[in-house]
Structures are given as structure tokens and as C-alpha cells.
Design a protein that fits this description.
The chain has 116 residues and is mainly β. It has a single domain, classed as Barwin-like endoglucanases (Beta Barrel). It has an 8-stranded mixed beta sheet. 28% of the residues are buried.
Length: 116
């Protein structure tokens, strides 16, 4: 049996942009993606700490080193620049493997979105 478990989490980053006129997705600094073991195209859940919204979308890599977090397309209506969000990636795995699996959890600086 396969179970869906927490695979990766970028905990409490600040939204730096919201671009309504983009096709969709969330743009994330590659430094954060690599630290959280996330890949471009991966399905993620975005939890907005400021307003309680939960959004599902997919990841695209942004510019490296700037700490950029940009919600694109319709998701841009559900955040405001400066909101704090949690980005969660889930994975499917065998039940026994899931029992011992350790997710990649990243806790960046909330002001800069960088790994200090």
C-alpha cells in the first residue's frame, strides 16, 4: 500500500511578489528548492499564515539567491506581498518506507527568505 506523507517543507517565507498576469504556479528561489529537496514542476500546497488560505499549484524555479517567492496567476489573488506562507510538498511511498522516512524541513529567515 502507498501512503502520502510530508516530503518537504519551506516553513514561513515572505511573499515577495504576486503576478496575476502569469499562467500559474509559484516561483521559488532555487536555493530554497534545493534545501527543501523540491523540484521544478512539483505539486505543492501553499498555506497562507496571514489569512488561512490553502492553495495547490506547481513549482517553477526563480532567480537564485534573491529569496524570491512569487504567487502567479489566480493564486496571486489569494496572497498579498508581505504575507507569510508555508510551502509543503508531499510524496507517495510504501507504508513501511514511510514509517522511517525523514522529510526535508527548511526554516529560512522570514525577513530575507534566505538560509542564514
Amino acid at each position: 500500500m502507498l501512503v502520502q506523507v510530508l516530503k518537504s517543507k519551506i516553513h514561513r517565507v515572505k511573499v515577495t511578489e504576486a503576478d496575476l498576469n502569469y499562467i500559474g504556479s509559484i516561483t521559488i528561489d532555487p536555493d530554497l528548492l534545493e534545501a527543501a529537496n523540491m523540484i521544478e514542476g512539483e505539486r505543492v500546497q501553499i498555506v497562507n499564515v496571514n489569512n488561512g488560505e490553502r492553495i495547490e499549484t506547481y513549482v517553477i524555479a526563480g532567480e537564485r539567491g534573491g529569496g524570491g517567492i512569487c504567487l502567479n496567476g489566480p493564486a496571486a489573488r489569494r496572497v498579498a506581498v508581505g504575507d507569510i506562507v508555508i510551502i509543503i510538498g508531499y510524496g507517495f511511498m510504501d507504508f513501511e518506507e514511510a514509517r522511517s522516512f525523514k522529510p526535508s524541513l527548511v526554516f529560512p529567515n522570514t525577513e530575507t527568505n534566505r538560509l542564514d
